[in-house]
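Pilot study result, target chain (140 residues):
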Amino acid sequence: MNSEKKPEICGIGRRKTSTATITLIPNLSVASENFFEVNGRLGEQYFQYNFNYLHEIEGPLRKLELINQYKIIASVKGGGLTGQAEAIKLALARALCKIDSSNFRSPLKVEGYLSRDARIKERRKYGLKKARKASQSSKR
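Predicted structure:
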């Protein structure tokens, strides 16, 4: 039995405390409705049909005009929906760069899809109420 395996491209993205691992599979049937899965659920259902999250995730595909050409299977953990959406976006851009680095990298870099947003919550320090908030000092 000679079974040909479809080429799968993987990418990892992080944002805040979210981590996304993504797998791109070439979509042979263009009529397929579920081209985007997150943690075993439809992407629209997982992101609660929020247009902003879905629009942000599709950004790299829309920039390269590759919408509906790949099936996206994402595994996400940690953080909230905003961090997870941005982590998927970064993982998708990195996976697309693995496909064709010479043609895809420069347009994605110009749009800012390949830069990791390193802002995370600052840790709480001892002697303070929060990361920077100190207790009010009394004058008397």
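One observation from the pilot: Helices lie at 43-46, 51-57, 59-63, 81-99, 101-111. A full batch analysis is planned for the follow-on phase.
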